[in-house]
């Protein structure tokens, strides 16, 4: 029922993008999302070497014949990588879809995207950034409202306004998100004029997501009030689950701690241990306000099928 420019051009069953969740977007999880009908996205920044990155791409290809994307990260990193070399790898492995995201447009890479006929999705935070990348030749623009988990940018625009504003301000098809956790949220994004929805927080509570079951159950029990904005003091605002680790970062920011101390407290190593061991207060977890709409843990295939059924039911209800 919901065939859009996203489903047609990307070659996927549902107008759903499984958002890049850094270390959680493992090859296995990406492949599971693709097999379930969405577009999964592998995070290149999680691989410290080109060989390990190539191995991850090959793992995805070994688990699904369906389209998937690779994210090239343009955010500042403690361990910078050469995106040109990672682009070499994804091209040699036959990846056809690339997503870029970060504090700037990938102007140095655009020529190679075009030369190799990649479908290019760029994720940004507002209309003027979308307009710039439209001129550079992007195929899709992704924007997510202030409700989302992870990087929020500095504009503080909610999903209803942001998605609609970008849709009316550019000619490219838009993928929208921020607070999407069920079929009604998906339908709302499509009603705003977007061609697909991106989601992340809801995917944390799926069977295939590589985090500890104890953490998944904690998220099921959480409410929409259980998130907090962190790292605004260092110009890198993120929305996270409000656990003890997040409270520590808040405390450091309140007393104007330095960059190094804040980054160390918010570092990914503790989060990875939390994901594996289930010690739920150990690290920072990017998490949106949609956590309040998460009520169960189920396979991604069942989640997406239920979302589409809910969206269709809601659509027919409105039509009546």
Please describe the structure with a list of short key phrases separated by commas or semicolons.
alpha/beta; 11 strands; globular; 16% strand; TIM Barrel; 2 domains
Low-confidence stretches: none
Give me the secondary-structure category: alpha/beta
Q: Overall pLDDT, averaged?
A: 94
CATH class placement of the largest domain: Alpha Beta
> So what's the oligomer here?
single chain
Radius of gyration: 18 Å
- CATH homologous superfamily (4th level) name of the largest domain: Aldolase class I
**Rough outline:** globular
Major beta-sheet overview: 8 strands, parallel, barrel
Could you describe the 3D structure shown?
By secondary structure, the chain is an alpha/beta fold. The chain is built from 14 helices and 11 strands. The protein folds into 2 domains: 225 residues, TIM Barrel; 77 residues, no CATH class. The protein has an 8-stranded parallel beta barrel, surrounded by 6 helices. The protein has a 3-stranded antiparallel beta sheet with strand order 7-11-10, covered by helices on one side. Strand 4, helix 5 and strand 5 form a beta-alpha-beta unit. Helix 3 runs parallel beside helix 4. The radius of gyration is 18 Å and the shape is globular.
Detail the topology: elements first, then pairings.
Layout: H1 5-10, E1 16-18, H2 27-35, E2 39-43, H3 50-63, E3 68-74, H4 83-92, E4 97-102, H5 107-115, E5 119-124, H6 127-136, E6 140-144, E7 150-151, H7 159-169, E8 174-177, H8 183-191, E9 196-199, H9 201-204, H10 213-221, E10 227-230, E11 238-241, H11 244-254, H12 259-265, H13 268-277, H14 300-319
Helix pairs in contact: 2-3, 3-4, 8-14
